[in-house]
Design a protein that fits this description.
- The complex is a heterodimer of chains A (250) and B (251).
- Helix content of chain A is 34%, strand content 26%.
- Chain A has 250 residues and is an alpha/beta fold.
- In chain A, the strands form two sheets. A six-stranded mixed sheet of chain A has the order 6-7-8-3-9-10, with helices on both faces. In chain A, strands 2-1-4-5 form a four-stranded antiparallel sheet, with helices on one face.
- In chain A, helix 5 (170-185) links the parallel strand 7 and strand 8 (189-194).
- In chain A, helix 2 packs across helix 3 (115-124).
- The model of chain A is unreliable at 1-7 (pLDDT under 50).
- Chain B is globular, with a radius of gyration of 19 Å.
- The chains are: A alpha/beta (250), B mainly alpha (251).
- Chain A binds chain B through residues 21-23, 59-63, 77, 82-83, 85, 87, 89, 91, 93-98, 102, 106-107, 109-112, 134, 154, and chain B through 4-5, 7-9, 11-12, 15-16, 19-20, 85-87, 89-96, 248-251.
């Protein structure tokens, strides 16, 4: 973690002492974390740990209690970031009464991209054969890929994905992860949340979060080494126990 | 506002409408069916001496009222869907401006209202022999303006509804008082003072007065243009209020 205060140029996201309350309950308890540029960072934690709230703060749609979130060198939610950051919510937010192609072309137009680029984004998520179908008629997994296509089409510098692989079949899931790494190799920064630990191993860096607190911010290998186990699931458990013991001792 | 984004948004809303064939059919057919009903009700009523026939009086107001009530409902539900399905929040993380979205709805449903008003006018004038001193194009223009006003009110009211049940309940709250007090049932001049005062601040009263001016005068009158300006101003005000309800950040 970077507590020194300066913002290195290779940081895509810098979160400092972020506190968020939702519905009178504190969801994030002063989180500080950094997300480097051009890699896939996984945000992992159980359901209800505050993952979505943290992602919402990064894209600037979350009312923040205290602390700061800097994205691509600007305060999160700045007007200029709206063309540089893509966000895919957990529940697919696309128009059910439009076809996949029409959805992608609309979001393409918002970002000043062509129809051909929209069609390419649809093909990239494996929905080429279903491009002419209404989104409302698709399966849950197809719907979330349609939603993903609408974010890819803007070719954002930072792509924030909230549980993008839920409900996808294993082959497609592997393809999506390959796609994420190809994008990172081309310079895109990805922040991907998941509650499935087997996806943690696919990330270049990990942010482990539980009950609104950050437990680890490191590479998967370093997390394994710190916990003294090769199994990331087990490593997560050990870090939680160590953290709880540490808090009781202090 | 950005012309490219506004055009894309208007097109997107019209495309959504086009996929819903039943709604399109209802939008086009229902006003004509209701005009048929009104005509059957009043066809045998004698006209008061020196006055337009009762059918002419009622049908003219109905031509302005249909787009108002229908577009208010359609917009309230459409915007509520944008809020509940997360598309609104997503749109607000893109380069789209709030006014692009609001004017997109105004343009899309305004165009739908023009189609609706043309069909209803063809039926009213052509089939049922509606007679107005002024040109029927003015009637269509005022009907479309009413639709834009209704869209603006619908966009604003949808912010106060969490469910579709609630959104529908705004119809009797927003629309019915305006219909009761617009001068169709009791001429505005014959209302009690306080009712007149309420009627004076309701935009539909001006739309109805404008239609009555078209009914009574061969050329557009100053009163008609003033009424049209009042309705347009009310629509602009409602759009500004609606813009204020769109928050990029929420709890």
């Amino acid at each position: 973690m970077n507590f020194s205060g300066e913002a290195p140029v290779d940081e895509a996201i810098a979160v400092r002492d972020l506190v968020v309350e939702r519905g009178g309950r504190r969801v994030l308890h002063g989180i500080s974390a950094a997300v480097p540029r051009g890699v896939v960072t996984g945000l992992l934690g159980p359901s209800g740990s505050g993952k979505t709230t943290l992602l919402r703060a990064v894209v600037g749609v979350q009312v923040v209690g205290a602390g700061s979130v800097t994205v691509l060198g600007r305060p999160a939610g700045s007007a200029e970031l709206r063309r540089r950051v893509g966000y895919v919510t957990q529940a697919p937010s696309v128009y059910a009464d439009l076809t996949v192609r029409e959805n992608a072309r609309y979001f393409a137009a918002l970002h000043g991209r062509s129809r051909a680029e929209a069609d390419r984004a649809v093909a990239e998520v494996g929905l080429g054969p279903a491009a002419g179908q209404l989104v409302g008629a698709l399966s849950g997994g197809q719907r979330s890929r349609a939603s993903l296509a609408c974010a890819l089409v803007g070719e954002p510098e930072l792509l924030v994905l909230d549980e993008p692989t839920v409900g996808q079949d294993p082959v497609l899931r592997a393809e999506l992860w390959a796609r994420f790494h190809a994008m990172a190799a081309a310079g895109t920064t990805l922040l991907v949340s998941s509650h499935v630990m087997d996806e943690a191993a696919r990330c270049d860096r990990l942010l482990l979060i539980r009950e609104g607190r950050l437990i680890a911010d490191d590479t998967p290998d370093a997390v394994r080494a710190a916990a003294g186990t090769d199994d990331l699931d087990e490593a997560f458990l050990r870090l939680i126990r160590a953290g709880a013991a540490g808090r009781e001792a202090s | 506002m950005n012309p490219r984004i506004l055009a894309a948004t208007t097109g997107r809303i019209l495309r959504q409408l086009r996929h819903d064939r039943r709604t399109v059919a209802l939008l086009v057919v229902v006003p004509s069916a209701l005009l048929t009903l009104v005509h059957s009700m009043y066809v045998d009523q004698p006209a008061p001496p020196g006055q337009p026939s009762t059918f002419d009086r009622v049908a003219l107001v109905m031509l302005g009222f249909f787009p108002f009530v229908i577009m208010f409902l359609v917009t309230s539900i459409a915007m509520l869907r944008e809020r509940t399905t997360g598309t609104l929040e997503r749109l607000l993380t893109t380069p789209l401006g709030k006014l692009d979205l609001l004017f997109g709805y105004g343009l899309a449903f305004g165009l739908a209202a023009v189609v609706q008003a043309v069909v209803a006018s063809v039926v009213a004038y052509g089939v049922f022999g509606l007679q107005t001193a002024g040109h029927s194009a003015l009637v269509v223009m005022i009907a479309a303006l009413n639709a834009v006003l209704a869209v603006a009110l619908g966009l604003f009211c949808s912010a106060f509804a969490r469910t579709e049940f609630q959104a529908v309940q705004f119809m009797p709250v927003v629309v019915v008082p305006q219909l009761l007090l617009c001068g169709l049932f009791v001429p505005r001049g014959e209302m009690a003072g306080w009712l007149q005062a309420v009627s004076d601040v309701l935009p539909l009263s001006y739309a109805v007065e404008a239609l009555q001016e078209v009914g009574a005068h061969a050329e557009p009158t100053g009163t008609m243009w003033r009424d049209v300006a009042v309705v347009a101003g009310a629509a602009a005000l409602a759009l500004v209020l609606a813009a204020a309800t769109l928050r990029r950040r929420s709890g």
